[in-house]
Structures are given as C-alpha cells and as structure tokens.
Design a protein that fits this description.
The protein has 17 helices and 21 strands. Helices cover 38% and strands 22% of the residues. The protein is elongated, with a radius of gyration of 24 Å. It is of the alpha/beta class. Strand 7 and strand 8 form a beta hairpin.
C-alpha cells in the first residue's frame, strides 16, 4: 500500500462508490482520504459509509482519513407562481421578504441578513452565476435591482453576493447538528463552508475543541482579503473553486489558486485543490486533456492534495477516475521541472529549533542518500514540519495515536504508520528501522534520517536528529 507519489487524493463517497468492494478498490487505486458530503444524505447513510471505511482500513492495514464537509448557509430565492420565469436584460426586478409566490417583477428572498448588508451597486448572481443583477436601491426588507444578464429563473435557485460581507456564521443549525454527529462518529477532518473571516474559523475551533482538524474552504472573495489570518487559524485550507468560480471572474480563479497555495506553503499548512478536476469522467472513461493539465498544474503549484467530487460520488467510473488522477500525479512528480519548481518555492525555515531540525533532516537525507526521513510524532506537528521542507525522499510518519495517523493522511509525502509507543530514544530508533523494513522503504545497509521531540508526547518539540543505518538484525 505504499504510494508512488507524495501528494494525496481525496474522493467523495456516494452511491457510485460506497459498496465495500468498490471502496476497497478505490483505496488500492490511490485514495488517501474519503469525503462525506453532509449537504446530501441522512446521518444513517454517512454512518454506514464511515463504518465501511474503517472496515477497509482494518483489512488493508493502512490509515484512511475521513473528512466531513458541512453544508454551510445556502442563500436561495423563493418560489414562482408559474415555477419558472424569463428575465430580460435591462428589466427591473425586486427581492423582498414577502412569502407569496413570485412573478416576472419580484420574488421572495427570506434572508434578512442579506438586506442588512446590501448596498446600491452590489451585484447579485443567481443560479450559479447564470443571471446577474445590480442593486439600485435597498432597505432592510427589499432590494430593487436591474437585470444585467437575463435568462430563465426557477424555484429556489441559489443567490451569490460576491461584493458583500454577510453578517452570518458559517455554521447553521443544521451544521451544528451534523457537526455533533460527525464528531461523535469520529471523523478526522471538518470542512467549513462559507468562511469569510478569521472569526468564522475561531468560532468553529471552540466547538470542535481539538476533536478533528479544521479545513477552511475558501469560496468567498471576502476570505481572500483575510487570507493570511484564515490560514494561520486553520489546520488545512481548501481551494473550493465551485463557488469561488461563481463569485470571482473566471480569469481570476487560477491566480487565486496559486496565491492560496503559496500562502499555505509559507505557513506550512496543507492545501487542497478541489472542484471539477476530472469532471468529464462523471460520464466518460477518460478525462479531457485540459482536465489532465488542471490536475498536473495543482501538483506543480505545490498542492498537498487534490479532490474528486461528483466523479467518485455519482460518476460511472470512480475507480478509473482515481487511477488516472494517481497516474497524472506520479508523472508530474517524476518531472525535472517539478523538482526545480519545488526547490525554488521552498519557504525559509522559521527561526526555531523544530524548523532547524526539519530543514537539516532534508539536507542530511539528500547528502547521505537516505531512503526516508522518519518522523516520530504524537500530534503530527513533526511530520508537518518535515512536509513543509518537501524532501526528495518519502516521509515515514510514525505515531502511537491512530487519530494522528489518520490526520497525517492529508500531509504531503507522509506515509503514516500507527505503531507502538516508545519509552526512550533507542527504542524509537529500533521501531523506525523495523517499520522502514516492513513497509519496504529500506533494507539492510540503507540509511534513515530520524527526527523526534524529547521528551516524548510534547507537541511541537522537534529537537533531535539521528542517522540510523539498518542492520540485518532490524
């Protein structure tokens, strides 16, 4: 089960991929983390899928991460008397709080917080950006708009407000109920939708309280204005190109993707690129050349992980989709240009002992031709620091905590292993050599570079580097 690449794959579970046999094949094809999309499905369905993941994990002997993706607030218009209308460019249209069915002149928008934040000149996008309107005048209960881009509009279509900072928490009542359920179930990661401000992440962190890692989904332009603060407060960042592509001009999305990845690389935080990566494979057995290039670009840019959504959840070819994504990633990571870009974009280590040790481990591993950098960690921070350095050799992440092993499944280059605890440094070195042989990273005569924090169990206390040569006794 050793991967031949360092970046990771996340796949969304759904009807096409939830059968135990299919799920096992998908893991073998390359999936490291499964996403449970709480925008769809009942709790019982998610529980059944979670249990299947854990059964496959036990069978294969490899940690598998589980990410729950919260729906977040969804702003939708009301209904129409005729279910559907046609809007012409230049027409006047009103949104209001009146619950009665709409017509060609108005419709309900049952979100008072939207009217509280709207200002003249703001843009409203409807139905994934297919229709565009500009606010001419507004008050606390209504907004008069001019239709800029017309078209058909039907019941309960989504409304995006790219120019507006909405006074809304990213956690709705539904999200809070789902979150309690997911944390009790034992998910490893929680993805927050609709993050606008650092305070949104802080609110979620108080509730989660260390029970799962926080993935902040950047899908609002307002989040980009607070990028560094949100990155600092989050454990992981997701470039959620779906809503981001609706609320931002399409020509801005690739630039924002690179900017977000760069910010995460500098902070040493894992970053995921998501949405429509191999979208044509929902119905076709092979991707377009543009999609293959899109996946490759994310890896060249330095993403820690790429994510499949509908492709693996409802697509006709979930196993083939994971396999081709795996092949693209492996090919990129073999490219000399990838190595040059990776080395050119390596951030400088911070001025502290853990970063100094991690930087030295990469350099030493390259100098002596070590087969792996081994990190012994209880919280995962030692492995994260090693991954920030992007060593040429794999990172063998050893931990006595299964929760930490599962969280390391989203960490670039880390092959996570749940192993027994060590009581002293000599025992730790012995465990490292034993696991490196068993997992086929090294054999007799090979070298390992080992980092750890002493005293054991102290998060972030990486302060030891050791070179170990494997003997026939290991």
């Amino acid at each position: 089960m050793r991967r031949q690449r360092k970046a990771k794959i996340i796949a969304t579970l759904g009807p096409a991929s939830s059968h135990p046999e299919t799920l096992e094949k998908i893991v073998k094809a390359g999936v490291d983390v499964f996403r449970l999309n709480f925008s769809h499905g009942e709790h019982a369905e998610h529980q059944a899928r979670f249990e299947t993941i854990r059964e496959v994990e036990a069978k294969l002997g490899r940690p598998i991460g589980v990410l729950m993706d919260l729906q977040g607030p969804k702003i939708r218009c009301g209904t129409f008397a005729d279910e559907k209308i046609e809007l012409e460019a230049g027409a006047t249209f009103r949104f209001d709080m009146d619950k009665k069915p709409g017509d060609t002149t108005r419709v309900s928008l049952p979100h008072p917080e939207v009217f509280a934040a709207l200002k003249p000149g703001a843009n409203l996008l409807l139905d994934d950006g297919k229709l565009r309107m500009r606010v001419e005048k507004c008050d606390s209960k209504s907004a008069e708009c001019t239709v800029i881009t017309g078209g058909p509009l039907s019941n309960r279509k989504g409304v995006n407000l790219p120019d507006v900072m909405l006074p809304m928490s990213p956690l709705t009542e539904k999200d809070r109920i789902d979150l309690d359920y997911g944390l009790e179930m034992g998910v490893d990661f929680v993805a927050l939708s609709f993050v606008q401000r650092p305070e949104d992440v802080a609110e979620a962190r108080k509730i989660i309280n260390g029970r799962a890692a926080i993935v902040s989904k950047l899908e609002k332009p307002q989040a980009i204005e607070h990028l560094d603060e949100i990155v600092a407060l989050s454990d992981i960042i997701m470039v959620a190109r779906g809503d981001l592509g609706v609320e931002c001009p399409p020509e801005d999305v690739p630039i924002l993707q690179k900017r977000i990845i760069k910010a995460c690389r500098e902070a040493g935080k894992p970053v995921i690129v998501a949405t429509q990566m191999l979208d044509s494979m929902v119905t076709n057995p092979a991707p377009t050349r543009a999609e293959a290039s899109d996946v490759a670009t994310a890896i060249y840019d330095g993403a820690d992980a790429v994510m499949l959504s509908a492709e693996s959840a409802v697509g006709k070819y979930p196993i083939e989709t994971v396999s081709i994504m795996d092949r693209i990633m492996i090919r990129v990571e073999q490219d000399e240009l990838y190595y040059r870009m990776r080395d050119a974009n390596r951030p400088d280590p911070e001025h502290n002992s853990p970063d100094a040790i991690s930087a030295a481990a990469r350099q030493v591993a390259g100098t002596i031709g070590a087969k792996a950098v081994v990190t012994y960690t209880t919280s995962g921070s030692t492995s994260l620091r090693a991954a920030r350095e992007r060593p040429e050799v794999p990172i063998l992440g050893l931990t006595p905590k299964i929760q930490t092993a599962r969280r390391m499944t989203l960490c670039w280059g880390v092959h996570a292993v749940f192993t027994r605890d060590a009581t002293n440094f000599a025992e730790m070195v012995g465990i490292a050599c034993e696991v490196a042989k068993r997992e086929e990273f090294a054999t007799t005569g090979d070298a390992l570079v080992i980092t750890a924090g002493v005293p054991f169990g102290t998060p972030g206390a990486t302060n030891i580097l050791r070179i170990a040569w494997l003997s026939s006794k290991d």
